[in-house]
Amino acid sequence: MAKVVLDWKTAEAFITDAFIGVGVPAEDAKIATDVLLESDRRGIESHGCNRFKPIYIDRINAGIQNPVTNFEIIKETPTTAVVDGHDGMGQVIGYKAMRMAIDKAKEYGMGMVVVRNSCHYGIAGYYPSMACKEGCIGITGTNARPSVAPTFGVEGMFGTNPLTIGIPTDEEFDFLIDCATSITQNGKVEYYERIGEEVHPGTIIGQDGQPIEGDAGVALKMIRNGTAALTTLGGIGEALGGYKGFGYAMVVELLSAVLQDGNYGKALNGVDENGNKVPYHLGHFFIAIDTNHFLGEELCRKKAGDIIRSVRNSKKAPGAERIYTAGEKEYDIWCARKDSGVPINESVQAEMNKVRDDLGLTQYKFPWEN
């Protein structure tokens, strides 16, 4: 599909105005927009503009996500907090929760905030990046609608459950590992459907225990109706360590529910027993560790930089030109895109046109309309 680059200024203004148009307060709309576009800045197109309408605008319009966020603190100590997001904007809940964790870490060394009753909070890496910018190590995770099968299972019992960690370095980019505990995620399969790419072998398992291949749209429908499921890191069975991905996925599931008395597993399906759409009630956790409460930010940044540079400078495989460390490819993409904008495929172009027209945002004319 043909892609057209939309400049960052127009993308930011339009998405912010669209969020405001469906009832999100202006300051919250700016946060939600920044989280969403950060995904595209880093080249993670499955979680950026690709999800703007179907995951956020449509859910608000369907009444299963509240545009006005009630960030309620249920319990708080100097180093911890439990928050109920009341099905508000996940990006706003995530931003405020990580902000709390960082503030606690700055004062006491470490801070942890757990959340229940939230919605999709966008690119997980946004939140540890907040911590890294302030000299903290940042950690977050979230559960999600059940679409991933446990090892030796074929039923989606938990979500793609990313475990995301950021560590400040002395380089232009921090170390940031942001990935699902499944081989791929629903957003990637959705993206493959949009661009006409087939399912990658081994990433989805059918009821017969065999890999699903072929059309991504068909595979996505099978995941949605429960006749297929995503596989954990390591793939089907134990031969390549699928149990490891399963174990880490369960860590995220537990930390997203047990400390905050949140929903988990099948309760995150987004539908009730009658098939009606309902809020997802997701759970998240956020941890910040202040390096200045140890031997200092400067030492941490240099040591982390030395470690990742030593790895990147190690012997390369035949034919390989470069070894990357986490966060490096995303930084390279940002450098390439920062003066241009976000590439928008034809499907998302149509969605943005519809949102604009439905909300009467007639001041916006997009480059693909020329």
Question: What can you tell me about this protein's structure?
Answer:
The structure is a single chain. The strands form 3 sheets. A 7-stranded mixed β-sheet has the order 2-3-4-10-5-6-7, with helices on both faces. 38% of the residues lie in helices and 16% in strands. By secondary structure, the chain is of the alpha+beta class. The protein is built from 11 helices and 11 strands. The protein has helices at residues 8-21, 26-41, 52-61, 90-108, 126-133, 186-195, 216-224, 242-255, 297-312, 328-337, 346-359; strands spanning 3-7, 72-76, 80-84, 110-118, 136-142, 163-167, 175-179, 204-206, 228-230, 282-290, 341-345. The protein is globular, with a radius of gyration of 20 Å.
Write the layout of secondary structure elements.
Elements: E1 3-7, H1 8-21, H2 26-41, H3 52-61, E2 72-76, E3 80-84, H4 90-108, E4 110-118, H5 126-133, E5 136-142, E6 163-167, E7 175-179, H6 186-195, E8 204-206, H7 216-224, E9 228-230, H8 242-255, E10 282-290, H9 297-312, H10 328-337, E11 341-345, H11 346-359
Helix pairs in contact: 1-2, 2-4, 4-5, 6-7
Structural class, from helix and strand content?
A: alpha+beta
Q: Which value, in Å, is the CA radius of gyration?
A: 20 Å
Task: State the low-pLDDT regions, or none.
Answer: none
Overall outline: globular
In angstroms, what separates the terminal alpha carbons?
Answer: 17 Å
> What topology, given as strand order, has the largest sheet?
2-3-4-10-5-6-7
The biggest beta sheet is recorded as: 7 strands, mixed
Helix content: 25-40%
Mean pLDDT: 95
One letter per element, helices H and strands E, the order comes to: EHHHEEHEHEEEHEHEHEHHEH
